[in-house]
Amino acid sequence: MLRVALNGMTHAIAQGVILAHRFAGILFLSFCLVTPSHTETRRPEPDEAARKWTTIKKPLRKAAETEGKWEVFKDITVDAGKSVVLDSRIDYSSLDKVAVAVRSASDSLSDLEDLTLQTFWSVPDADYFSAAEIKFGRTFPFTNSGSVLFGVYGSEFRLILRNEGGLSLKVGQLLIFCRSQ
Question: What class, spelled out in words, does domain 41-179 have in CATH?
């Protein structure tokens, strides 16, 4: 009889522990959903952008206005532990993929293994850019050159190049090429 009472009490304690874990999980998820994401970037004011990162911005153009739906950025230096923001001038609203090809500068001894490419997307009426995908230079087949393919999640594209290494990284050329199916 004592054994039956203990088994019942053990079962009740186990149920209480399970409920406590569920409550803690719900509380944690609620906190994550309510607080703004640290990866979400607000559209910076020009003076704010200069303080936090280097921004290379071109005027917005329709994809049909660019020759072959592409654009090229040249001679980009990303200091150690810093980021460079590239704002594309293409309107991506009618596209579904964007390819990015990167090549280090020919006079550079640095490789692209410490490079991180982060994509952010927005639309004209939105207050924020939303983070979408991250690709790493260490996955490139060569240390001085590589390419990645990203999905399109908005009409405005922002690519952030982040140098995770201890030395400055020199990108000789970055090509953005748009694809649609």
Answer: mainly beta
Report the distance separating Cα 129 and Cα 123, nearest Å: 8
Q: Is 57 helix (H, G, I), strand (E, B) or coil?
A: strand
Beta-strand pair 156-163/83-87: antiparallel
Residue 28 corresponds to which tokens in the numbers above? 């944690």
Least confident range from 35-39, 66-70, 140-144: namely 35-39
Average of per-residue pLDDT across 20-42: 48
Secondary structure percentages of the chain, helix, strand, coil, to 5: 25, 40, 35
Give 51-77 pLDDT, tens digit per residue. Answer: 445 555 555 455 445 455 899 999 999
- DSSP letter assigned to residue 106: T
Please tell me the distance from the alpha carbon of residue 112 to that of residue 137, in angstroms, as a whole number: 5
Helices and strands, counts by H and E, the chain: 2, 12
> In degrees, to the nearest 5, what angle opens at C-alpha 140 toward C-alphas 135 and 91?
50
Judge whether 80 and 168 are in contact, CB under 8 Å. Answer: yes
115 forms beta bridges with 163
Is residue 169 within 8 A of residue 109, CB to CB? The reply is no
Do the Cβ atoms of 77 and 160 come closer than 8 Å?
Answer: no
What one-letter code names the amino acid at 10? T
Q: How far apart are CA 31 and CA 156, in angstroms?
A: 29
